[in-house]
Design a protein that fits this description.
Order of helices and strands of chain B: HEEEHHHHHEEHHHHHHEEEHHHH
Bound molecules: iron/sulfur cluster
Number of helices of chain B: 16
Distance between the termini of chain B: 43 Å
Number of domains of chain B: 1
Distance between the termini of chain A: 29 Å
Oligomer: heterodimer
Order of helices and strands of chain A: HHHEHEEHEHEH
Helix content of chain A: 40-55%
Strand content of chain B: 5-15%
Number of strands of chain B: 8
CATH architecture of chain B: Orthogonal Bundle
Number of helices of chain A: 7
Largest sheet of chain A: 5 strands, parallel
Shape of chain B: globular
Structural class of chain A: alpha/beta
Chain lengths: 166, 399
């Protein structure tokens, strides 16, 4: 609305500042600067994920704010072991999120089963078997810095997204 | 409308709530979890509600079952230690220690003084770190106080930095080995711990100012979720929860292991000062706060001993690690006090390099079993405060 109001007044065109951009990059810029994440912890990795949110690493400076509901969130960080019992719930949560939505798989467990890949009869061997993953963060547990790096990669991905092509 | 019954713990009292109604009201069953910010992991409670009042809370487990026992069958004795880390991931050092101690007792290994001292120091520091996250930081979050969480995590990072220098890991250490430690200490280890101890008392004071005296916090926690002494003992709960109910029981003192007999420390128990009730949420929080101070005292005493006798910190930490860990046939039950309570390991050996069976007695699982009794008759909003004060870790409940 602010921009439209200005258009009525031709003077402000001469004195004000202009920024040229495409709708696409404007939208992408908006999206990548406020990636709201779902506050959802699964196992040990969730502790490092909490540490990334807390004072020393301060993930919120990237506009990442934890939301309690999947309906508010843009990214879901799968932080921990996904068991078979939990897999259906994870899928449900993912489906409840509005588009566009992104998934960060944090830690070996959600990447591939981690320490439980061989004998874990009840562990899903990689969360990508139930939901599509955008960024994989390796480690057991990944350091908070590694998670931040994963987030920056996700921002890059969002930055180069195209509206017309999927 | 019936007055809120003070603390109905028995089925009969629940019947009383149900029958005492002048108007017949419909009960409603709702689901809380497995994804809920205050269930501290993936845990589902089926709530039977009458209006706002909790009539029953039925816990459903197994969302984080990671097959611990199955893994122990397939692993050699030292390989089990990383899986112990991943049970109670807030207090991984203490878990390692509990397991290592059990295997050492099974094999009759005696570790050196140096190893004992380092174990006590890292164990107590880890207890502080665990309370900072589970018992205080996220508990504040649960009842709506965000700032203490940030303060707690700031100081926890100092402890994690020390551990990282010690063994390379921030959270899951695999540091305490059967018969020794994975790494020797680094040169400035004791200095850094001393400087941490010096500044941590300030943090305790800050958190006290932010939480302990906070009207909102105390109103939400005092007289809520009362667990009486008898009920607590009958359920077999342990750790800070049991002590908050007024039972002076700490395995570090009552069933001594390692070198805890050399240190002078108090065992804080719940009290009924300032309108609190013994065994309520506030007391569980308060016991953890004071326990951190006591842990700090133990660490300080241990560091002082190490300074007094310079020869103490010399020698190889892996000198007593057995070349081949293959205990003779037999079984052992050994228990230690972790930050959550009594952690027991029951190990059966069949004279092989793999344990025949490792059964864990996890404190969190037993502590959580009291949830239906502790919540009956309270309001839904209190449920969050009650569950948070249990400080359970789902990794250990489901294993
Ligand atoms: S990857 Fe490692 S730290 Fe993360 S949940 Fe799995 S076992 Fe825990």
């Amino acid at each position: 609305m602010g921009l439209l109001n200005k258009l009525d007044n031709i003077e402000s065109f001469e004195t004000g500042n202009f920024v040229f951009s495409t709708v696409e990059s404007l939208l992408n810029w908006g999206r990548l600067s406020s990636i709201w994440q779902m506050g959802f912890g699964l196992a040990c990795c969730a502790i490092e994920f909490m540490a990334a949110n807390a004072s020393n690493f301060d993930m919120m400076r990237f506009g990442v704010i934890p939301r309690p509901s999947p309906r508010h969130s843009d990214v879901i960080i799968i932080s921990g072991t996904v068991t078979l019992k939990m897999a259906t719930r994870v899928k449900r949560l993912y489906e409840q999120m509005p588009d566009p939505k992104y998934v960060i798989s944090m830690g070996s467990c959600s990447n591939c089963g981690g320490p439980y890949w061989e004998h874990g009869y009840h562990v899903l061997k990689g969360v990508d078997r139930v939901i599509p993953v955008d960024v994989y963060v390796p480690g057991c547990p990944p350091r908070p810095e590694a998670l931040l790096e994963g987030l920056i990669r996700l921002r890059d991905k969002v930055r180069h997204q195209s509206l017309s092509k999927a | 409308m019936q007055e809120l019954v003070d603390h109905p713990t028995t089925e009969a009292q629940v019947e009383l709530i149900r029958s005492g109604k002048s108007l017949r009201s419909e009960e409603m069953t709702i689901n809380m979890g497995p994804q809920h910010p205050s269930t501290h992991g993936v845990f589902r409670v089926e709530l039977v509600l009458d209006g706002e009042q909790v009539v029953d809370a039925i816990p459903h487990l197994g969302y984080l079952h990671r097959c611990f026992e199955k893994h122990t069958e397939a692993m050699t004795y030292p390989q089990v230690i990383p899986y112990c880390d991943r049970m109670d991931y807030l207090g991984a050092m203490n878990n390692d220690w509990g397991y290592a101690l059990a295997v050492e007792q099974l094999m009759g290994v005696q570790v050196s003084e140096k190893v004992e001292y380092i174990r006590v120091i890292v164990g107590e520091l880890n207890r502080i770190a665990s309370h900072l996250v589970g018992g205080i930081g996220t508990y504040g979050l649960d009842v709506g106080a965000f700032t203490p969480f940030l303060y707690c995590f700031r100081d926890r990072e100092i402890i994690l930095n020390i551990f990282e220098k010690l063994c390379g890991a921030r959270l899951l250490y695999n540091y305490v080995w059967v018969g020794g430690l994975s790494h020797d200490i680094y040169p400035t280890f004791l200095d850094e711990i001393e400087s941490f101890c010096g500044q941590f008392r300030n943090t305790i004071r800050e958190v006290n100012e932010l939480l302990t005296g906070n009207k909102i916090f105390t109103t939400r926690t005092k007289k809520v979720g009362v667990i009486t002494k008898e009920v607590a003992i009958n359920y077999g709960i342990s750790g800070p929860m049991l002590r908050a109910s007024g039972v002076k029981w700490d395995i570090r003192r009552d069933d001594r292991y390692s070198i805890y007999d050399r240190f002078d420390f108090e065992i804080p128990i719940g009290n009924d000062n300032d309108g609190a009730l013994i065994g309520d949420c506030y007391n569980r929080y308060w016991v953890r706060m004071r326990e951190m101070e006591e842990s700090l005292r133990i660490v300080e005493q241990a560091v002082r001993d190490c300074r007094k006798t310079p020869t103490l910190m010399q020698g190889d930490v892996q000198k007593d690690v057995p070349k081949r860990i293959k205990p003779a046939s037999g079984e052992i039950y050994s228990r230690t006090e972790t930050s959550k309570g009594e952690l027991g390991f029951y190990i059966i050996s069949a004279n092989g390099t793999n344990p025949y069976r490792v059964k864990v007695r996890p404190p969190c699982f037993v502590n959580l079993s009291i949830l239906p009794d502790a919540t009956r008759g309270y309001y839904v909003a209190d449920l969050i405060a009650i569950m948070g004060s249990f400080d359970f870790v789902m990794g250990e409940v489901d294993r």
